[in-house]
Amino acid sequence: TFEGHLRTFFMASINRDEYPDYYALATGGGLAYFSPIIKNFQVAMSGFIIYNNASSHLGPQPPFANRYEIGLFDISNPDNHQDLDRLEDLYLRYYFSQEKHSYIQFGKFQLRTPLINLQDGRMRPNLQEGFWAEWNEWKKIKLKAGWLTRTSPRSTIKWFDIGESLGQYPSGRATNGVKADYAGNIETSGIAISSISSSLAKGLDLQVWNYYIPNLFTTTLTKAEWSKSRNNTRWLVGVQHLFQQSLYNDTLSIEKQYTTKNERANTISARLSRTNALHSDEWSISYTRITKNGRYLFPREWGVEPFYTFMFRERVEGSGDVHAIMLQNQRPLNKSKSLSLQTQGGVYWMPSVANPVLNKYTMPSFYHLNARVRYKFTGFMHGLQADVLYTYKGNLDSNLEVIPSNFHNKVDTHLLSVVLDYYF
């Protein structure tokens, strides 16, 4: 089987009058091949190439640096407009049964887990290398596990060892307030991931995930969701708890450390949602609390955060002592459900930007608005999808000093994305 994908992505950001604006238009295409399954074995491979059709200058212009549009291309080489190709999938998979429910695979592949995920809000997603296994033969319990040795983050075209991948994105500050400089100073053998999920009671789903990175940290995420349907209305209550403990034990200077010795973090996230089954109209309210114990840290090169209050175009990763609340609505706009609208509004109370111990990226308190429209074409244009996202982030700190590090590409910022995907 062959599969193709063509993608066109326009992105623009508008900052305060005293700061520069940006735009970029990217196009790209890729092909994937999946072999027949012969004696339970299957091989897959894929690649993708990207072109910068037009853009403003995306390279650093101190004290300004582009944050969003450069992510469509290669963040390590902003002036590269054409040579943006990458080998993506290349794996051997073995199915444990003819039903193809369970398997183990080795090589390069796309991986979807709560913390290490595709992060596919640009041209191409994150990719991983190593082995991955899933066991789905039991009705109520599912197991997943893997060991990752290399990664190719979104917005790059190279493959990196796990430790080498940290610092490919902007690194923020160390806890002493000095610019972080951990790129090239992280030594770890890989990432061990394990998961168990169960549905032992009716309407109750439970997941436990652990990410163990030697000489860096261990993170455990527990998620429970209970749902109940009655009179064409479905209610859902969800709770997440994340605990993180540093495993770092080297003696490098503070600015060369990704996480400090004995650092830990606790995060609670909760959601209540109501869905009208007749109209597929869903409302939800979510809350997240990161305690004062320390910063929640997880390399942005590996994926987006899994919290219920996550909204496109911003994160709370790198921070502690955070309160966040988010209201969301999702609904179809026509009977065929080919046209849909998602709206989000959130308020995020962050620690002071003057506190590097709890605010790695000097992100001020802000409010966040998103409106996203998606349309799937039918008939002759089947396979074509359109996706338009508008974002505004506003400042909530009335005493915030007006300097680039506090505002530029962070708050008082408009963002627009228009994406066309064609799958064949």
Percent range of helical residues:
under 10%
Mean pLDDT metric: 96
Poorly predicted segments: none
Distance between termini? Answer: 11 Å
Main sheet summary: 18 strands, antiparallel, barrel
Strand percentage lies at: over 45%
Structural class: mainly beta
Question: Helical region count?
Answer: 2
Description:
- By secondary structure, this protein is an all-beta fold.
- Helices cover 2% and strands 50% of the residues.
- It has two helices and 19 strands.
- β9 and β10 form a beta hairpin.
Fold blueprint:
Blueprint: E1 2-14, E2 22-34, E3 41-55, E4 84-95, E5 103-109, E6 127-135, E7 141-152, E8 160-161, H1 162-165, E9 191-201, E10 204-213, E11 217-230, E12 233-246, E13 264-276, E14 281-290, E15 322-332, E16 339-349, E17 366-376, E18 384-395, H2 404-407, E19 413-423
Antiparallel strand pairs: 1-2, 1-19, 2-3, 3-4, 4-5, 5-6, 6-7, 7-8, 7-9, 9-10, 10-11, 11-12, 12-13, 13-14, 14-15, 15-16, 16-17, 17-18, 18-19
